[in-house]
Amino acid sequence: MNTSLYILTGASRGMGLAMAEQLLQKGNALLCISRHTHPELALAAQKANVPLTQWTHDLADGEGASARLREWLHSQNPADFASASLINNAGVIPPIAPLRQSQPADLALALRVGLEAPMQLCAAFLGATQAWPVPRKVLNISSGLGRYAMASQAGYCAAKAGMDHFTRCLALDEALHANGAKVSSLAPGVIDTDMQVQMRGAAGEAFPDQSKFLQLKAQGQLSSPAQAATQVLGYLARPDFGDKPVADVRD
Fold this sequence. Notes:
The chain is built from 8 helices and 7 strands. It has 251 residues and is of the alpha/beta class.
């Protein structure tokens, strides 16, 4: 066994890109599933002399991504890895508006990328690796908005709440097996990403909580993507990872 394997979605920007860079720097094998490949990751992998695979795949097609992942994992040799982890990081925030003004296609996309695809990828990962004699982990990147309701955010809140709850179910499933995976749905804190820009730029009349996000930025309370990535990966590496199926990085 040489290196650890990580499978990461949404690795082309923000915290996902920062996590990918940090994982490569630490000498891990990495499979990224994103809408775009990132040339800087290829350079980082070359510099660290570690294997990197980048797939261009829209996770609105979670069924196709999960089938491809299952096939790829079956082609791997478990003896090459000290451990295997899936990080479901990709998500979509639909246009910020009351539900009555939301478009069905926008809601469907948010749920497909933020809930359906993580479930499908978890199923593929755990099914394909169930006989691997190495530690396995699933880290689902959730949000405080999965636990606290917010006006004009029904699509995103619903996707993250669903992620939290299916992770609870998944933890019960895996606890029944001697080599079951450790799983957690983790809120990563407030991060200075494109999502925060979208919230700060929303029309005030459509988004009653806009002032809260403007205040977070003005008071310097947002983590950088690199800082958040370090915290999240640190949580994933903790010996008690998985003790709480639903957690917050600040716990």
